[in-house]
Amino acid sequence: MIDLRSDTITKPTRGMLEAMFKAEVGDDVYGEDPTTNYLEEKVAKLLGKEGSIFVASGTMANQLSLRAHTQPGDEVILDRNSHVFLNEGAGGAAISGVQFFLLEGNRGILDPLKIEQAIRDPSDYHHPVTSLIWIENTHNRGGGSIYPPELVRDISRVAKNYNLRLHMDGARLLNASVALGIDPKEYTRYVDSTSFCLSKGLGAPVGSVVAGNREFVRRIRRFRKMLGGGMRQTGYLAAAGIYALDHHVDRLAEDHANAKLLAKAIAQLDCFRINPKDVETNIVYFRIVEGKLNPDDLKGELRKNAVLVHQVGNGYFRAVTHLDVSRQDILQAILILKRAVSQLTA
């Protein structure tokens, strides 16, 4: 099976499993798990922050970050297609009591001027208080689009001018830094806090990390416990994250190359709409030209031939390349896609 639905479906490699098996563990709620402590120190150093904390998932990382940065009734400025808005069960409203001010980004990338124009006048009691700017890098619904570091710098200046916090949802932050060939600190130096997933392209089975200053991490730790996220012998999971950071970061470039290969092949089929130049990392979105194919039939034909893609809706599909998909798998998927299109349009 060639599974292109998401990079979350990756499974631990043999080396990662061995690292997990050998991990030294303790009770993390007591702060006594040495492997988890080491991972948190390693991530803080990687991102140039005072501290970091291991959490169960990217969604937990996002919801805890919202809670730590805001008060109920605050407003958060973000792109309308952000994961934290679309795909987290209204957690921002339910857990933090915040309101979202949605902007139309360019494939998810926000314009600093539009952000500034959206900031509320704090002296007007009719309006909520703007307290946080939220950016997503890479941007999932933007097709893995990348924020240029200088744009993050400019957004940071807006935040500082208005005494706001700036958080980067960096679920795939290392995809962005690898694609641009830069140190992730070239991003994180401009944000108050950030996070990234260990369980997507990095291939760990579970977990994300959130990073920021000591007070922010302290608040995250408290809210993590409040929401049931305090786990015990997390060192087995942390060991997988350490192994991923040591062995699976540079190879993300292979996923990007495979995604671009797939996008170019899809663009050659006149029943789809896609701009291969938009594929910057490992996410490929494409759309069926109206009337050319039935989306359900296409998905079913691909599945029948052992290729899985994510059907987003309205004729849109997403394919994500990752650790468990080789160049040969992509070439095979392209052949199967071409054959499916030929059969369905005959």
From TrEMBL:
Similarity comment: family membership: Belongs to the threonine aldolase family.
What is the organism field in this record?
Aerophobetes bacterium
List modified residues, type N6-(pyridoxal phosphate)lysine. Answer: K200
Asked whether the UniProt record includes Transferase among its keywords, one would answer yes
Q: Which GO terms describe its molecular function?
A: L-allo-threonine aldolase activity; transaminase activity
Q: What are the annotated GO cellular component locations?
A: cytosol
Keywords associated with the record: Aminotransferase, Lyase, Pyridoxal phosphate, Transferase
Cofactor(s) needed by this chain? pyridoxal 5'-phosphate
Q: What is this protein called?
A: Aminotransferase class I/II-fold pyridoxal phosphate-dependent enzyme
